[in-house]
Amino acid sequence: MDSPTKTQFDEVFNTLKSVMLNFLDTEEEKLTPGTGLAELGLESLDYVEIQVELAKRYGVKLEEEVFTTGQVQTLEQFTKYVLQLRDDLKTNSAS
């Protein structure tokens, strides 16, 4: 994948923040790219809610393994992961 533009990154990052703020008891300012997912205290149902919203908005399916194996640990990594899935989806549908 080419490096995402700042606009693409911001769009997905802001979507993630918006979804998370619906169920997290935290201030928006605390959700930065460097915020660790472990710090947020997300529960399995939270991930389901995030998955459903991202599937609706971007048509992507999150793989649980990237979270359980520690491949995605921060909101920045999460955002880039979603961008990669979205790009892969576009590439596969174009072929």
Which tags fit this structure?
95 residues, mainly alpha, 5 helices
Helix count equals 5
Query: Whole-Å distance between the termini?
Result: 16 Å
3D shape: globular
Order of helices and strands: HHHHH
By DSSP, the count of extended strands is 0
Structurally, the number of domains stands at: 1
Largest sheet, if any?
A: none
Measured by DSSP, the beta-strand proportion falls in under 5%
Low-confidence stretches: none
Looking at this structure, what is the CATH superfamily?
ACP-like
Structural class: mainly alpha
Mean pLDDT: 90
As a percent range, the share of helical residues equals 55-70%
Verbal overview:
The chain is an all-alpha fold. The chain has a single domain, classed as Non-ribosomal Peptide Synthetase Peptidyl Carrier Protein, Chain A. The protein contains five helices and no strands. The protein has helices spanning 6-21, 37-40, 44-58, 65-68, 75-94. The chain is globular. It starts with 5 loop residues before the first helix and ends with a helix. The model has no long low-confidence stretch (mean pLDDT 90).
Topology diagram in text:
Layout: H1 6-21, H2 37-40, H3 44-58, H4 65-68, H5 75-94
In short:
This protein is an all-alpha fold and 95 residues long. Helices cover 62% and strands 0% of the residues. The mean pLDDT is 90.
